[in-house]
């Protein structure tokens, strides 16, 4: 009788296609078949990365790679449903662009924080009166550039194309878009205050 801890036959249902496979370990192996071995086999057969797989047996998702198959009821002849698909190179490319944009947004947010910090210093009187107007004009220029960069980043995000099924990519893009909108509101508020302060300084001179 076959030791089902070391060798079993499984029926894999992936989409509309069924496959029969054997999972087995070397005869001299001290291991027993685990969910991890099944996951690795799915990578080998279907080129679906581990993070993209969902393996289901009798309505239950097999999540723990360390679970022993025989102990969770996966026995010889069992039917396994595999969900997930091979990564689309184009979507991988779009995701890389998305992550690059996210990093650029973080850098631009740092520039906005620097402008805010320097403006606060002017408000606290950390700069001579005769230097205020040039400093404020310089901050206005930098703030305008920061705001323009955020707008370009929104355009870049809008140009990305994710399939309806790619909820991860679409959700992450929305999160970044929402973040940029908040930062643009900050830019608008700062710009309004800067213009008022510049006008007051010009009246003094």
From TrEMBL:
Indicate the segments annotated as coiled coil, or none if absent: none
Residue ranges occupied by any Ubiquitin-like domain in the UniProt entry: 8-89
Organism's domain of life?
Eukaryota
Keywords from UniProt, A to Z, are: Chaperone
Q: Can you name a GO cellular component term?
A: cytosol
Annotated Pfam families: BAG (PF02179), ubiquitin (PF00240)
Name the InterPro entries on file.
BAG_chaperone_regulator (IPR039773), BAG_dom_sf (IPR036533), BAG_domain (IPR003103), Ubiquitin-like_dom (IPR000626), Ubiquitin-like_domsf (IPR029071)
Q: Which GO terms describe its molecular function?
A: adenyl-nucleotide exchange factor activity; protein-folding chaperone binding
Might you name a Gene Ontology BP term for this protein? protein stabilization
**The protein's name:** BAG family molecular chaperone regulator 1
**Which organism was this protein described from?**
Mytilus coruscus (Sea mussel)
